[in-house]
UniProtKB/TrEMBL annotation:
InterPro entries (alphabetical): Flavoprotein-like_sf, FMN_Rdtase-like_dom, ISF_SsuE-like
Keywords: Flavoprotein, FMN
Gene Ontology MF term list: oxidoreductase activity
Protein name, as recorded: Flavodoxin family protein
Coiled-coil residue spans: none
Organism of provenance: Pseudoalteromonas citrea
Domain NADPH-dependent FMN reductase-like: 1-149
């Protein structure tokens, strides 16, 4: 199964990167750090076709298993990860893009989160799981990495 880890964090070498590196070393997965790219917020007018989102989305579609990894930011994923998920709506809005969106169907997804808490917050997990399931993906695993409080 061809796997990619799609991760985001304000600290490129922080706890999320550490957890991702360990998973990648064990699984042989590829990785993509979303914060290295420009991903604008979703707009109903689809004004942001000049950023990196569509190219990244097409690249990710080449994988069978997508691991979404993010630290917990106020009970949610990072802003860049949220923008990435929101931008998928463009493929639902434009009927000519539906065939591309349908390529997500049947793919596996996993969620890797990390924080100083023992578990990821349910609203964060629900957003990721329900969105991916709506798109026809199947959950493979959900892991939460507990890191000690840094302050």
């Amino acid at each position: 199964m061809k796997t990619i880890v799609v991760y985001s964090s304000s600290n490129k070498q922080g706890n999320t990167a550490d957890a991702c590196k360990k998973y990648i070393a064990q699984s042989g997965a590829d990785s993509l750090y979303l914060d290295d790219f420009i991903i604008h917020d979703y707009t109903y007018e689809h004004r942001h076709t000049d950023d990196d989102f569509r190219g990244l989305f097409l690249q990710i579609l080449e994988y069978d298993h997508i691991v979404f990894a993010s630290p917990v930011y106020w009970y949610a994923v990072t802003p860049r990860m949220k923008a990435f998920f929101d931008r998928i709506s463009e493929y639902m809005d434009d009927k000519s893009l539906h065939p591309v969106l349908r390529r997500l169907r049947g793919k596996a997804f996993s969620i890797h989160t990390n924080s100083i808490s023992d578990t990821a917050p349910e609203p964060m997990l629900a957003m990721l799981i329900k969105t991916c399931e709506y798109l026809g993906m199947q959950v493979k695993e959900q892991k939460h990495f507990h890191y000690p409080q840094a302050y």
